[in-house]
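does this look right to u?? adenosine-5'-diphosphate version
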Amino acid sequence: MGEFDLIAEYFTRPVRRAALGVGDDCALLQPGAGQQLAVSSDMLVEGRHFLSTVPPERLGHKALAVNLSDLAACGARPLAFTLALALPRADRAFLAPFAQGLLSLADAHDIELVGGDTTAGPLNICITVFGEVPAGRALLRSGARAGDRIWVSGRLGDARLALEAFRGTLTLPGEDFTAVRTAMETPTPRVALGLALRGLATSAIDLSDGLLGDLGHVLKASGAGATVERDAIPRSGVLARQSAAWQHTCVLAGGDDYELLFTAPADQDDAVRAAGLRAGVDVTPIGRIEAQPGLRVVDAQGRPVDIAERGFDHFA
Ligand code: ADP
Ligand code: MG
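got this back:
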């Protein structure tokens, strides 16, 4: 199977929203009147962003999901994406399920594959997503203000727990392992929540590198500090059965959660909960933005927690 056959068979579909899709030198996109294009790329490298054990269908899902998560964090509506793919060989047993996982998530979010590049090489997947957002209404990292509440969607830490189980640093019962492995391999991008938070959240970011590191980006961009209540961070039943030390590492420094962290004025709690309901995902308050610079973590009794030793590394 040559490069062009491969593209034709797996990655060429008629477009409905784009003005021009796969097949020419460029794709053509037509954002709506008054909309800004939101653009983001994420590259997935074997061994660093996924393990060789991941089923191809899940890899296709994840490659797009992590990109959709960036659109979600900006409150952008997905439009189109491109796929740059380096493959060791043109292998149908890989390509068919990979394309299936990729394109079924694309269909679920009404986002179209409009182009890309294909080459031989070590497995590497780079997707660029294009979304649209009304001019000036994108959610940014820079808008958090003292007094805002800090929220997260979903539950944190399962992906890190799965990674540790793969690494052999801990052992999980079969069903628990299956559940957290699914969380790691098929994250759910919170696109509907991002849209529901437009005009409500003062800042947002998606959690890809771990809560402490990603919240740190928001604080830096916003010129603010924060206190987070460690034991308020939502976690799954599987994670809640692990030792306290593992729970703390996974929720605070886990990475690969692909949930949203966002801030909103404290008098908007009801509106934030309503946004979560509309989007079909739990939202949980975990702390406050403060004028005093720095990130402070406290336990349920309000006692300071030492976070100096928590690495932000992931797949390192
Ligand atoms: P060029 O040589 O002009 O870069 P290519 O021959 O690489 O074009 O690609 C031909 C067409 O197929 C282009 O429209 C390109 O966007 C598309 N394409 C290439 N690889 C992929 C892919 N992995 N997924 C989707 N479209 C692709
Ligand atoms: Mg090319």
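The longest strand covers residues 35-45. idk if thats expected tbh
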